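Fresh eyes needed here. I'd like your take on this protein's tokenised backbone:
***
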Amino acid sequence: MKEITVISGKGGTGKTSLAASLVSLAENTAVADCDVDAADLHLVLNPRVEQVNDFSGGKSSAIIPDKCTGCGKCHELCRFGAVVKNTDQKTVFTIDPIACEGCGVCSYFCPEKAIEFKQAVNGQWFISSTRYGPMVHAKLGIAQENSGKLVSLVRSQVKIIAEEKGLPYIIVDGPPGIGCPVIASVTGTDCVLIVTEPTLSGQHDLERVVELINFFKIPAYLCINKFDINPEMSDIIEKKAMAAGVKVVGRVHYDRNVTGAQVKKLPVVEMPNTPAAADVRTMWSNLLQEITAATKVS
């Protein structure tokens, strides 16, 4: 079983569209959407949700009105401004759940034991089925943290399912950037497919993500999406990638059919006679050749 993680240095490069196409080309595969802050792979793959589970990435505090005497100890000790003094409610103080950092100081020092400190629900994760295979995806709550922990949970669950079903591939749609959720998406994966675009910002963000991947010593491959909108920049990016040890496995034309496929909830490779579909098929073939060659060497 091989885990292929698709990432990008910045948002808007077409990463999710290409990931959806890889899922289609891999046919019987397991899928994970690890872009939990802004998950959208489900918009193309149209999964049927079979299980819904709450995700808790930490704890939060809440005042019990019947026990609170309004002494103000929690307000005095809170360093995050989460304890708010009321003027028109029965309780003197309340705790803002968004501002609360879950440190537990208020609960520990409350003389009346009037503050609950319990697991917070920060989001949900789902086990779904698609016509390509099982899918694990998630949704982080608004203004919630611990996205890296949720990403790790999604990856662990999809691996369990893939192993149980004996599936040959796991396709992971990772988040953009180089932060904690990206690190959680790529650590331990078999290879990374980086998607970039031929712009100056695309080049700079690619350099950052390549530095990250090289630090973890993960085999990395590159796809330049919409390469024909700036061929000169595409050439520059390709040379820089190769100099950094990243092999270029594909260039994809700018193609309006990609948007048309998204409207129809289809990967673009399922749109016949389109330039982008042909390019992605070639990229997938090249990527498989590289993975097979790397496996033989190892």
